[in-house]
Design a protein that fits this description.
Blueprint: H1 3-6, H2 10-29, E1 32-34, E2 49-51, E3 54-55, E4 59-61, H3 63-84, H4 87-93, H5 95-100, H6 102-116, E5 123-135, E6 140-147, H7 154-175, H8 187-202, E7 208-212, H9 220-234, E8 238-241, H10 243-249, E9 250-252, E10 258-260, E11 263-270, H11 282-293, E12 297-299, H12 302-307, H13 310-316, H14 322-325, H15 329-337, E13 342-344, H16 348-356, E14 361-365, E15 374-375, H17 377-389, E16 397-401, E17 408-414, E18 417-436, E19 439-454, E20 467-470, E21 472-474
Helix pairs in contact: 2-7, 7-8, 7-9, 8-9, 10-11, 16-17
The chain binds adenosine-5'-diphosphate and magnesium ion (MG) (2 copies).
Adenosine-5'-diphosphate is lined by residues 131, 144-145, 340, 362, 364, 367-370, 372-373, 400-403, 426, 459-461.
Length: 475
């Protein structure tokens, strides 16, 4: 029986069929993650796969905001590089955080050691993702954060755009959509290209690229996509090692060459090492130090990593700080325009306001990977508790203006089941930057990632289970 004869609107009838088409497409095209239900899915490739959670259709975004976000990517790339060169700025800005946050303190310790030996990083590779939300009240694109380490989903994000184009070509007439309005997304091949160019600059034909991974990683296919492009398009081999394997098997020759399994490593690409959980023992810290001491290209170097902390994001938003790092006034204006309100907790007035109106703020510790921020009434309780604790306890956090994007209805698909929900979205723009001494080899916007979550959820991460992968539809 046709949908019309059953009395259902054609779009609703098509939705069920679309979901099956879409999930089959995911399986056929590698838009997959390890399934939590299978205990081996995080360690054994090809076992226990499930389609990545996705939204059935792309999320609308005005073209002007899209252009604005794309234009910012090379400016942020350059900003990260410039800030990374100012070791004292990083150490000073994080000096109070260090007193109360062990993880940041350990990173700073490695950074300080490198400053002491005047460690030179001639080849500098950044693979970043700057995340934004569209604030509904002001209709402005505001930055949530800038990720300089382990920016995830360049692999799977590219595929979601392709999935959406395919679905729109097949079903778009039902929704009056045109697949050409979904921007192409080459994040996967562009990140691989940047890694390959860094390998070229390192200039040792037999060298490999080493991806630092967690011992268990259900998002491994996102990572394997980059390794596939590196092999197939650039003829470069990628090896995967955990920090503890690096500690056990790696060493640095007197000339700085990093060697593991008898192979020279040209580029170390971190997809682990961004959270305290990645350092369960001293062995992992020893590995991080060893990598930093080597002459391999680090993506990121310890200084690039520190530039991406939330404390530095807040410091850069203070008056006249951007001017220290960038000369071009137009670029400074563009960057400043996307900064939301950001405050250090030294500011007693703002702490008072946040205790009075906690719903207007987000309280953020120096953590990555989702699930760490504090919202709503918990902001008030935490601030009052930290104030009582006294000392520098507040310095572990920053305060940020809460951004309220406009909610819209979306169909979210997880585990083969589609749910309609009121959702909000976060746009991530990837950026790739490569410099060898004075020569800027690459400074590009490199694709995008849209993530969509139910509007009632505070947190964002896909891997953390809050959001689904999405793409965008230009309006
Ligand atoms: P992480 O490094 O853990 O990803 P984020 O700063 O990106 O930290 O915060 C995690 C999530 O919290 C974001 O993806 C977003 O959904 C939400 N979030 C963060 N900052 C804000 C904000 N200022 N307003 C509204 N939501 C926010
Ligand atoms: Mg982050
Ligand atoms: Mg984030």
């Amino acid at each position: 029986m046709s949908a019309a004869a059953e009395g259902r609107p054609p779009a609703a009838a098509a939705a069920g069929e679309m979901v099956r088409e879409a999930t089959a497409w995911c399986a056929l095209h590698g838009l997959v993650v390890g399934d939590r239900a299978d205990p081996r899915s995080g360690t054994v490739p090809g076992v226990g796969l499930v389609h990545a959670p996705f939204s059935l259709l792309p999320t609308h975004l005005p073209e002007s905001h899209w252009r604005q976000a794309c234009e910012l990517a090379p400016i942020f790339n350059e900003l990260v590089d410039r800030v990374s060169l100012d070791g004292d700025f990083l150490q000073d800005s994080l000096s109070k955080t260090k007193q109360v946050d062990d993880f940041t303190s350990r990173l700073l310790e490695i950074h300080r050691k490198m400053m002491e030996i005047n460690k030179e990083e001639n080849i500098r590779l950044g693979l970043h993702r700057s995340d934004y939300m569209l604030d509904s009240e002001t209709n402005s694109l505001l930055q949530i954060e800038l990720n300089t380490i382990s920016a995830s989903f360049p692999g799977l994000g590219s595929l979601v755009s392709e999935l959406h184009r395919t679905l729109i070509d097949q079903y778009g007439h039902l929704f009056c959509l045109d697949s050409k309005r979904v921007p192409g997304n080459e994040a996967s091949s562009q990140f691989a290209k940047a890694l390959a160019r860094a390998w070229d600059e390192f200039n040792v034909d037999s060298a490999v690229i080493m991806m630092i991974v967690q011992p268990e990683e259900r998002n491994m296919y996102d990572q394997y996509w980059l390794a596939k492009h590196l092999k197939e398009s650039h003829g470069i081999t990628t090896i995967r090692k955990t920090l503890s394997e690096v500690e056990a098997e790696g060493h640095v020759l007197p000339d700085g060459t990093l060697v593991i399994d008898g192979k020279t490593v040209s580029v170390v690409y971190f997809r682990a090492g961004y959270t305290p959980n990645d350092y369960p023992s001293e062995a992992e810290w020893a590995a991080r130090l060893l990598l930093e001491q080597s002459s391999a290209v680090k993506c990121p170097s310890i200084s690039y990593h520190l530039v991406g902390t939330k404390k530095i994001q807040q410091e850069l938003a203070r008056p006249n700080v951007l001017e220290r790092f960038l000369e071009n006034k137009e670029e400074i204006t563009k960057i400043r325009k996307c900064f939301a309100g950001l405050w250090s907790l030294d500011d007693e007035e703002i702490v008072k306001s946040a205790i009075q109106k906690p719903e207007l703020f987000v309280l953020k510790p120096q953590r990555e990977g989702g699930g760490n921020n504090i919202y709503g009434i918990d902001v008030r309780e935490t601030l009052i508790r930290l104030q009582k604790e006294g000392g520098d306890a507040l310095a572990a956090y920053i305060l940020m203006q809460r951004i309220f994007p406009k909610a819209s209805l979306s169909n979210l698909v997880r585990g083969g089941v589609c749910h309609e929900a009121l959702t909000i979205s976060e746009l991530g723009i990837y950026g790739a930057y490569l410099r060898n001494n004075d020569k800027v080899v690459m400074n590009e916007q490199s694709g995008y990632l849209m993530r969509t979550k139910v509007s009632s959820s505070d947190e964002g991460g896909v891997a953390a289970g809050f959001a689904v992968l999405d793409s965008l539809y230009l309006t």
